[in-house]
Amino acid sequence: MAKKKINKIVLAYSGGLDTSVIVRWLIENYNCEVICFAADLGQGEELKPLHAKAKASGASQLVISDLKEEFARDFVFPMLRANAVYEGSYLLGTSIARPIIAKEQVEIARKFGADAVSHGATGKGNDQVRFELTYAALNPALKCVAPWREWEFKSREDLMNYAAKWKIPVSTTKKKPWSMDRNLLHLSFEGGILEDPWSAPPEEMFVLTKSPKKAPNTETVITIGYEKGNPVSVDGKKMSPATLIAHLNDVAGKNGIGRVDLVENRFVGMKSRGVYETPGGTVLHVAHRAVESLTMDREVLHLRDTLIPRYAELVYYGFWFSPEREALQTFIDKSQERVTGEARLSLYKGNVTVLGRKSPNSLFDPRFATFEADTVYNQADAEGFIRLNALRLRIRALAGKKK
Asked: Which domain holds residue 168?
C-alpha cells in the first residue's frame, strides 16, 4: 500500500520506548519533518529530559503544553461528577487523558501548519481509537499515521533493538519491560509480567502508593468540600482543581489507597490486564458519594446511577467528543446542582471510610428519620402504601392458586 504524502507531522510524544522509536521511524519512512508534542498532565519529573530525547531521536522540536488545570477542570471533574467507573473498578485515568492530548495535538498541528498527526498506540489497544476518534471529531482533514499498524516490528524487544541501532535513549529495559503511563489522576502499568493474570505485580513497580502493609498505623482524617458536584477544598483550604488532586494523591498514596488490579474488556474485543494507582481519585469518589447521599433526590440519583456504566463506557471507548456523551453530561450536571457540602473521611491502610457528611442542601430530616417519637409522620400510612405496592404480587399469587 502506497504511503500517504506527508510534509509535516505532529507526534503525541511521551519519551517512552514506543514514541522515541516512532520519531526516527517516521523520518525514515515518510521523509517528513516530525514535531514532537507532549502534554503536561502532571507527569512531573518525567518531562524534564524530553527536549534532549526528542532531538536525539531526530525531531525538529518538542512542544510541551501545560494542560494540568484544564485536564482537571474540564475532563477529570466532569467525569467525577458522573461517578464514572468502568467494569466496577477502573477509574479511567488513561482513558480520560487521551481526548485532551489529542485535542491539543490538533491545535499544535494547526499552529505549525502540519498536515498529519501520529500516536504511539498499538493496533491491539484502546488508545488508537481514543486518539483517532478525537482527531475525526475536531479536524477530519488531518491525516493520521499509526506506526504500530504499519511497521515491521512485532514486539517491544524489536523496538529496543531498533533504539540501540539508532542510539535512541530509552528507559524501558528487559528487566522491567512493563509500560507505564502517568498523569495527574493516575499511573497505569501494562505488559511484561503483568500479561500473566495469575502473577502478582511486583511491589517495586508502584510509584504513587505505599503498600498498605507499610502505611502508617494511625488513620489520617480529612474533610473535602464540594460545590455543585466539584471538589473545591481540603480541610477548609480552597484549592485549584489540579492542586487539589495532586494534594490528595500525596495524602492518600501515603496511606496505601488507590491500587487496582483488573482484567478488563478492551473496546477492540480482547481482554487485557492492567494495574493502576489512583489514590486521589479513589478518595474523591467516596467523598462525592457521601455528599450526594444527603443532597440528591432519590429518583434522580437512581436514574443517574443507571447511566454510569454507559457514561464510563463512552469515556473508555474514546467518545468524549460525541453528542451522546455531551447529552449525558448535561443531565449529570443538572443532577449535581444541589451537591454542595462536606465529607469527612478516614484514610487508613488502603481503606477510605466515611466518618461524616453535611450540607446546607441536605434532604436528610431527623424529624422524619428518627426512631424516636415524632409528630410529622403517621406510621399507619405505611399500611396502605404496602397494600397498593403488594397488589400485583397478591393477584399473581391468587392466579397461581387457581391453576
From this structure: 8-72+97-177
Q: Which helix (H) or strand (E) holds 262?
A: strand 259-265
The helix/strand count (H/E) of the chain reads as: 13, 14
User: Are residues 244 and 158 part of one domain?
Assistant: no
Q: What confidence tens digit (pLDDT) does each residue in 121-160 have?
A: 999 999 999 999 999 999 999 999 999 999 999 887 899 9
Asked if residue 243 belongs to a domain, the reply is yes
Query: What is the layout of strands, in order, in the sheet containing 351-358?
Result: 237-238, 230-234, 220-227, 341-348, 351-358
Closest CA to 37 of 26, 27, 18, 51: 51
Q: Provide the 8-state DSSP code for 343.
A: E
- At 180 the pLDDT is 87
Concatenate the DSSP letters of all residues of 12-77 into one string: E--SSHHHHHHHHHHHHHH--EEEEEEEESS-GGGGTTHHHHHHHHT-SEEEEEE-HHHHIIIIIH
Q: Are 198 and 263 in contact (CB under 8 A)?
A: no
Q: List the catalytic residues.
A: 18, 98, 127, 179
DSSP code for 90: B
Q: What's the total number of domains in the chain? A: 2
Please list the residues that pair with 145 across neighbouring strands: 118
Length in residues, the chain: 403
